């Protein structure tokens, strides 16, 4: 069946959550949001393109930082209201310069930082 | 720093997305939602507990199906508006009896089913 971005279920703001997973390591890098047009752009260009809720504009990941995400595969969940993008990540995915945004673990009730910023 | 579920950023409905990842294989199993109380319950009980938006009630994963998720670790992202739960998943995570909800891949513009339902 041909894939149509309009067939996905978007929230009241026209957005769907997209989970970015490192295609090589399997690590979860980040979670951000897409609208139908950014889903289409991501598939067309092979560059993962989110929708920035704060800037209200397309966010081609790495466009300014160089930390691009090349799409390896997009997957849709059973309810069609969440996306998984398998990516090749250049450098850090997080704006804090860490490889992943999920660098804080809860261990024994305490917050523990488990990743340090990458060297430039 | 002690972790307080109230320190997370919830959406207008008081919810935060939670990504469940298989602690052993690294596969993404599903994405669902938690409120502050289900975050606390998940940490207290070690059983991953979402908030069901459709039923408007706690959803202790596997409570009826037996397909429980035991928490190995909870992680918080940089913006504190998304959670990653590393889990030990009993059987399928998806209500379609597939191991993961993300069983539809987009390949060459077509939807391709990449997982089949598990045997009981």
TrEMBL record, chains A, B:
Pathway listed: Amino-acid biosynthesis; L-histidine biosynthesis; L-histidine from 5-phospho-alpha-D-ribose 1-diphosphate: step 3/9
Residues noted as binding Mg(2+) in the record, renumbered to the chain: 77, 79, 81
Cofactor note: Binds 1 zinc ion per subunit.
Record bears the keyword Metal-binding: yes
Domain Phosphoribosyl-AMP cyclohydrolase intervals: 30-103
Highest taxon listed in the record's lineage: Bacteria
Keyword terms: Amino-acid biosynthesis, Cytoplasm, Histidine biosynthesis, Hydrolase, Magnesium, Metal-binding, Zinc
Catalysed transformations (reactions): 1-(5-phospho-beta-D-ribosyl)-5'-AMP + H2O = 1-(5-phospho-beta-D-ribosyl)-5-[(5-phospho-beta-D-ribosylamino)methylideneamino]imidazole-4-carboxamide
Cited InterPro entries: PRA-CH, PRib_AMP_CycHydrolase_dom, PRib_AMP_CycHydrolase_sf
UniProt cofactor(s): Zn(2+); Mg(2+)
Pfam family membership, one: PRA-CH
Top enzyme category: hydrolase
Enzyme Commission number(s) of this protein: 3.5.4.19
Protein residues bound to Zn(2+): 78, 94, 101
Compartment list: Cytoplasm
Family of the protein in this entry: Belongs to the PRA-CH family.
Entries under PANTHER family matching the protein: HISTIDINE BIOSYNTHESIS BIFUNCTIONAL PROTEIN, HISTIDINE BIOSYNTHESIS BIFUNCTIONAL PROTEIN HIS7
Functional description taken from the UniProt entry: Catalyzes the hydrolysis of the adenine ring of phosphoribosyl-AMP.
Protein name from the UniProt record: Phosphoribosyl-AMP cyclohydrolase
Organism: Thioclava sediminum
Recorded name of the encoding gene: hisI
